[in-house]
Amino acid sequence: MAERILLSLHTRLPLPETYPDGLARSIHFAVSDGGAATPLRANYGILFAEGTLDASNVIKPKGVKNPMISRLPDGGFAITAVRTCENGSKDEESRGQFLLWRSHDLCRFTAQRLIAVPGGEYLEAARLTESEDGRYTALWQDATGRWYTACAATLDELADAEAQAADAPVSGNTVELSRAEYDALLTYWSPLTHTANDVPETITAASADELAAIRVNAVYSDGSTHGKCVDWDLSGVDFAKPGAYPIRGRMTARSFRFPLVENFADPVLFRWEGKYYFIATNDGMNDVGLYAKEADTIEGLFREDCPFHLILPYDPARHLIQTFWAPEFHVIGGELYILFAVGGEKWAPQCHLMHLKKGGSIIDENSWEDPIRVLLPNGENLTDDGISLDMTYFEAGGTPYVCWSYRFAIGTPLDSGSMLYIAKADPARPWQLASEPVLISRPMYGWENVQGTINNEGPYALVTEDTVYLTYSGGDARGYKYVLGFLTADPTADLTDPAAWTKSPTAMLAFPDVPGQYGCGHHSYFRDTDGTLYMGYHAATGYTAKIAMSSFRRVQIDWEGRPRLDLSAERDLNPALAEIRTTLIVPEA
């Protein structure tokens, strides 16, 4: 009998303390190749209903129930579900309609849309199929349990089609996959793991230093690679005598313990004039003051004898009183700045920049000019009716940009939630926007808007040759529900056009992804002198822990160029594969 591989869709039972409504009422994937179904993504949701806005511009979060799937004539898939309110109750706004996503590979999806069916009654479930000639058939169950069907030439015409009684589907939430589809699905939604090494049969080097500079590729489960340093045993090698020498070595990889720095959030690593620096939000001092570390090496920053230096103190005379949040180092127009938020007597953090004086030292308080509040193009404050924070700077396609988080009416019934805005920047005057702010993201999905944590914040860009990955944080900034998502765009596009951006359908890093680390978020990116990419983040040690713990981990660029944020130290370098052997060729002088 030929193997039968099935994909099934489901939602989960909400668990208020560990997997609440906003997460549970999403579409989850599970696969089976003959045995019991195995959930993908550690049973974390993959497709989420988008929230709506009420007349006061307040987000109304949504969920889904009874997801179904069908194969389309072009080989792709139609995924459907009934939209609900966040708590699972009937959603009046989508009465008589169901949600539809299309996908050619179950990894990337079209934007969701609502499809209306005849009758306008509440739905319990719905499924969509398409015939070879392009006609659509909707099959749905109403609130009384009866099933109906209708056909139309277009999706928009289904609402006016004639409904007929129908039988329930035998199994509407499963679809058969080919082996190739199954393998691709697992590769995309599973964590990367170190599975093999690409060790040359021979390596030519004339000295120990020359050999040490050679990297050996670790191969990962998706076929991508990363060059590792090797600690070679050269006890039997004489570089003064040309010849072939069998050698063995142990592959190594820089890794960071978790927690690395306690009571510090929003961590940033930075290299400047031959030294390394660490800066973060100081939770241990009630977020008052900016503190930085300096060392000759990355590891040196985290030695017990490496002190913090106060570089911006509490100062009522300058209205530097509270919420010294999310400092980031950025070189703008050849000058070094710290972008951060700070507030005065009234709680209202606002975006500021602080410039390093010519010849100044990062860890010297007196080397920094007074902070400047960020201004609009017309010279007015960036905002006076809300809070602004987490400003970052990046360049794409030769254009400089700033991106930040803005929120108004916080803690009131009109709370906007934190939102991401972008504008063009002027490197000569980075404290004043070069274009008007443009909204590019609000927390409309359940993974970024959970139990009232209406949050899009902490943007930080990774710009590759063909994609801008504007990674940002959503959910509870001091809890296990904190996550990272992607906004992606073409670097040559006008990034102040909201249409240039595509939001990931689910969190790209969430609490199930790295064992023992809950709520990894508010990240930054950093490359070492070898060009290896790392991310900083803070997280907690359990579901109920609230103390921010900072650390760093390597980021692998996968086979399709996507940064993978969930690469634990054990998956980066498998200890069982670390020992390698080859033949060293010592050449003639």
Can you describe this structure?
The chain is 4% helix and 44% strand. It has 589 residues and is mainly beta. The chain folds into 3 domains: 185 residues, no CATH class; 70 residues, Immunoglobulin-like; 312 residues, Glycosyl hydrolase domain, family 43 (Tachylectin-2, Chain A, 5 Propeller), CATH 2.115.10.20. It has a 6-stranded mixed β-sheet. Strands 3-2-1-14 form a 4-stranded antiparallel β-sheet. Strands 6-7-8-9 form a 4-stranded antiparallel β-sheet. A hairpin with a 5-residue loop joins strand 10 and strand 11.
List the helices and strands and how they pair.
Layout: E1 5-10, H1 21-24, E2 28-32, E3 38-39, E4 52-53, E5 59-60, E6 62-71, E7 77-85, E8 97-103, E9 113-116, E10 123-130, E11 136-142, E12 147-152, E13 164-166, E14 174-177, H2 179-189, E15 194-198, E16 202-204, H3 208-212, E17 216-220, E18 225-233, E19 243-252, E20 261-262, E21 264-272, E22 275-282, E23 290-295, E24 309-312, E25 322-332, E26 335-343, E27 350-355, E28 372-373, E29 386-396, E30 399-408, E31 419-424, E32 438-441, E33 449-450, E34 453-454, E35 456-463, E36 468-474, E37 483-489, E38 502-503, E39 518-527, E40 533-540, E41 549-554, E42 556-557, E43 563-564, H4 569-572, E44 579-586
Parallel strand pairs: 16-44
Antiparallel strand pairs: 1-2, 1-14, 2-3, 4-5, 6-7, 7-8, 8-9, 10-11, 11-12, 12-13, 15-17, 17-18, 18-19, 19-44, 20-41, 21-22, 22-23, 23-24, 25-26, 26-27, 27-28, 29-30, 30-31, 31-32, 33-34, 35-36, 36-37, 37-38, 39-40, 40-41, 42-43
